[in-house]
Amino acid sequence: MFTEKKVAVPKKEAAQAKDSGIGGHGLDDIDALPEQPVETAATVPTKEEPHTKPSPSTPHDDDHGLLLLYNPKEKNPMKRGGWTAGDPVPYAALSKVFAVIEDESSRLIIQDTLADFFRSVIELTPSDLVSCIYLCVCTELAPAYDNVQIGIGDAILIKSIGEATGTTPKFVKDLYQKQGDLGKVAQASRSKQSTLMTFQTKPKPLAVAHVYNDMVKIAKMSGNNSQASKCSIIKSLLVRCDKLSDEAKYVIRGLQGKLRIGLAGQSILMSLTQAFMHPKEQGDKALQAEALKHVKRAFSEFPNYEVLASSLLTVFTRENDQKGVFASQFVELAEFCHLTAGTPVSPMLARPTKSYAMVLDRFQAMPFTCEYKYDGERAQIHILPNGDIRIFSRNFENSTERFPDVKLSIANAAAKANVTSCIVDAEVVAVDKTTNQRLPFQVLSTRPRKNVVVSEIKVAVCIYAFDLLFLNGKSFLKEPLQARREALKGMFQVTPGSFEFATSLDVANTKDDDMESTVEIVRNFLEEAVAGNCEGLMVKTLSTEATYEPANRSHKWLKLKKDYLDGIGDSTDLVPVGAFYGRGKRTGVYGAYLLACYDPETEMYQCITKLGTGLSDEVLGLFFNQLKDCTIDRPRNDYAINDLIKPDVWFEPTQVWEILGADLSISPKYTAAIGLVSKDKGISLRFPRYIRLRDDKTPVQATSAAQIADLYNAQGLNTTNDKDEFDDDDAL
């Protein structure tokens, strides 16, 4: 009934293309091309890379036995093959790993395959481990806060492929439009093209480190001549791709910033953990979980793959037998990967609730606090020992340039205290300075993201600080909220309208006979928050089970919103993955959108609803202009869809929308949380309503399948919806 789209093997791809009625130029058109010798800049000796005869230990273009020897499917490490110890990791080996992962649907097999490759890298060329990791991550080439992101436009790639393979850009573009995968077009073109040899030598084969370094160069390029420089580097990479492997395909996809093989960050961390584990413990799931817990904690406190890899190698090499790290020894990562001012930490998140009773049940016999839930943007503010101040968003984006006024406000707030370093968790909210009124998030979102000058700011903001994670060299993560809050208020001075503490109300231990009065207290405080232009309340434990847990969505924090008390308990953050053409007055734009949640366990986008009503003409036009260039010819291999759902266009996952719905129901049509509540049915969100764009979230940070299941179970309903609410498209 349900189909999980995966990229098929070539024979299946050909059959699918035939069945889909694709005509005109296809990949078969490449066969009509004569092999065309091409001389490129990559074949000409330069001072940086002189042409020399490769040594016997260095993989080169004729050395297919060495380049292609590595077999990702071989489980016996003695038979898997590899490359000479100390030599650069061949990109051909990594591309073979990508190919196996792309054609595999089992998450466990994917993780094992990548773990085996990492083991080979650790054993043979550990210095290349970081490059391998970042090429797997693909979307980022450095820590997220350094903003070194790849994502080359199609025009440059098409031009580079044409020039590198002796075909015209028009021909490449035609193939791309028919096939839908520029990486496959590049590989097919490369396989039919030969290189005019210069000085009787062939280009050196690609190494992982070389590909990574070139991608970093490209990502950092800017200016008038940057396009020509990028094109030159891309051509050099393509000419050096081995024609017998999939290198060209994954080089191009990597340059696009989307490997499209269903490999997410959690799987990379799991594979990295498995690769370092001692052979005696690799098969023990409980020990794997223990080791992974330490790795995740280390990465959440210091989200830097280079530091994580270096730390793992340090722990690995100082063990006596150097065969691996025992699960109990992964705790040593905390020596190197820990909370540090200047490096953002993954924020702690709250779970939704839809009733006062649920709050009191969760915090029964515990003191707790209710805080205003502000309608702004999460901000993590760092003061460094050198006095520098940095501001980070919830997804690690460095927002310091966007909020120069926040820098001034936090500096003034800390001026009278001995603050040498700190990390403050806060919300930045738009305010009207003349009326002292808080303004909605939509106003804040109009503020420029770069080159903001304090004297030219039109949207003023106020900082509402609510937590302290780090102070004067000491981590406060293990301290209870009550102690963290006291330290926060003791070190910073309030300036009304610029720097304030979150308005809060503490509630003592609640006894059964006090439940009714406690509900009334919380209800009244919620009404005050809403009257103050806030979304609702955050309810948190104060002293019991009250530590700060980075990257965790915890039951220790609950969010209570007035609008959702009679709904599903919370809004959802969903990804538009497809659209339906509008009719009637909506002709010329997309009239409805297919939305999906994200399942990090299976690394799949799962469809949950179809959004069409409640969208203004202005919003529809805006969405159309933003997404029309993100269309793809077929659903990605990581889209879990029902065969009955057939939107007119499919999208790459690029945006996250906050959506409010009336309720959740079991559905045979949608795949969200399939298997978590019903064995063979998913969950649908009924009567969805668009709230806002969540530009502070990436698609993989959308509401998860497990969260959808939790929201459904929290309704206390067993609703089955065999006929989904959007079967009548006439209204669109």
UniProtKB/TrEMBL annotation:
UniProt domain ATP-dependent DNA ligase family profile: residue ranges: 454-599
Localization per Swiss-Prot or TrEMBL: Nucleus
Disordered: annotated segments: 1-67
One Gene Ontology biological process: cell division
Transmembrane segments: none
Superkingdom of source: Eukaryota
Group of enzyme by EC: ligase
Ranges of compositional bias, category Basic and acidic residues: 1-16
Entry keywords, A to Z: ATP-binding, Cell cycle, Cell division, DNA damage, DNA recombination, DNA repair, DNA replication, Ligase, Nucleotide-binding, Nucleus
A cellular-component GO term for this protein: mitochondrion
Pfam families assigned: DNA_ligase_A_C, DNA_ligase_A_M, DNA_ligase_A_N
Catalytic activity: ATP + (deoxyribonucleotide)n-3'-hydroxyl + 5'-phospho-(deoxyribonucleotide)m = (deoxyribonucleotide)n+m + AMP + diphosphate
EC number: 6.5.1.1
InterPro entries per record: ATP-dep_DNA_ligase, DNA_ligase_ATP-dep, DNA_ligase_ATP-dep_C, DNA_ligase_ATP-dep_cent, DNA_ligase_ATP-dep_CS, DNA_ligase_ATP-dep_N, DNA_ligase_N_sf, NA-bd_OB-fold
GO molecular function: ATP binding; DNA binding; DNA ligase (ATP) activity
Family: Belongs to the ATP-dependent DNA ligase family.
Protein name per its UniProtKB record: DNA ligase
